[in-house]
Amino acid sequence: MQNIIYRIIGGPAYNKGILAADESSPTIKKRFDSIGVDSTEGTRHSYRHNLFSTDRLEDYIGGVILFDETIRNDETVLPLKEKGICLGIKVDKGAKPYDDNGGKLTEGLDGLPDRLKEYGKLGAEFAKWRAVLSVNDTDACIIANAWTLARYAKKCQDEGIVPIVEPEVIMDGRHSIHTSNEFTQKVLHHVFDALYYEKVELESIILKPNMVLNGYASKTPLPTNFSDAKKTITNSHVVALYTVNCFKKCVPSAVPMIAFLSGGQADGDAVQNLNEMNSSFLTPWPLSFSFGRELQNNSLILWGDGELELSREALLRRAIQCSMATEGELNEFVSV
Ligand code: 13P
Questions:
Q1: Average pLDDT across the chain, whole number
Q2: Measured between alpha carbons, how far is 136 from 143 in angstroms, rounded to an integer?
Q3: Rounded CA gap, 123 and 19, in Å?
Q4: Which of 23, 27, 293, 318, when mutated, tests ligand 1's pocket best, judged by the most ligand atoms within 8 Å of its CB?
Q5: 8 Å CB contact between 178 and 218
Q6: How many C-beta neighbours within 10 Å does residue 336 have?
Q7: pTM exceeding 0.90
Q8: What is the mean pLDDT of residues 40-65?
Q9: Residue 283: CB atoms within 10 Å
């Protein structure tokens, strides 16, 4: 399994990441609604086939996460197979109500080994399971999600499939970056506790976490009182500092790849933040990306306007920037 991760991350250069194109039917409908396009099997195929046909995508993207409908459509995934990009598959069945506090628990463990076997035959080498947590969730909710993630990860490894372990703390709300930091640490501690007890091999997982941010509706400005050598403390620097410190406290160095989600940050912020982490801090793990919206947003709008070539160029441009950010060498002006 470690050789799969090595291919995804683009070893030995370590400059590739993951394109998350596994939007569930309701989520892709929401994305298509935003550009006034009906979500049908046909439009979903056209959109994704266009993305996957992007020239040189394989130089920056080592893996693509797919939805069930997509991996079953040979025509949609053919360009990825031709480029040698690893195929991943979302295997969870979504987050369902868990308690009266608004907590959610992701489901989908029933029948998972059989589904993994089938996906393996369809070419999947890695899988994804997303737990959705909010800073108001109870400890019981966090622990239930952590153990479910660990059970999923163990079942994947038993089938020779690399599990992406995604405990996403969503940033909706008015909480401060301090709250995000404390809550994310608590979640990560429970996740790694559960992975330990389930005997999940840490060397063969990919961790897909949130960055540590202010809640999107927070009125508290980011802190700026750092004794830092840099003269100007940018927002990205604060996010990078909080995120790296948070993960250093909770994530064992055996984990071979941390691939951040973008989580609905403003366009371009996630790639900037990743770049700042890699340019300003030393970490025990490679820090990469598994972005959905950050990679696709501009591309989606252009596709909706019928600009297929420009849409592919927008994806390529952002993929190049993300790759540069894995090395801390982001350049905002990339020509493709
Ligand atoms: P975003 O980068 O848009 O958050 O999507 C990543 C993802 O796959 C969430 O599960």
A1: 96
A2: 14
A3: 17
A4: 293
A5: no
A6: 14
A7: yes
A8: 98
A9: 15
CB distance 49 to 74 below 8 Å: no
CA distance 308 to 313: 9
**Residue of 262, 296, 297, 299 to mutate, ligand 1, most atoms within 8 A of C-beta:** 262
Among the atoms of ligand 1, which is closest to the Cα of residue 65? 8
Nearest CA to ligand 1 atom 8: 20
Altogether, the residues listed in the chain come to a count of: 336
- 75 Cα–ligand 1 center, Å: 24
Cα–Cα distance between 113 and 271 in angstroms, integer? 35
Ligand 1: which atom is nearest the Cα of residue 270? 2
CA-only gyration radius of the chain, Å: 19
Residues 289-317 pLDDT 10s: 999 999 999 999 999 999 999 999 999 99
Alpha-carbon span 142 to 18, nearest angstrom: 26
Site of tokens 């501690």: 189
Nearest CA to ligand 1 atom 4: 263
CB neighbours of 242 closer than 8 A, spacing ≥ 6? 177, 180, 181, 212
DSSP 8-state class, residue 285 = S
pLDDT score for 247: 98
- Contact call for residues 275 and 239 (beta carbons, < 8 A): no
CA distance 53 to 43: 15
Look at residue 38 in the predicted model and tell me its pLDDT.
96
Residue 255 DSSP SS3: coil
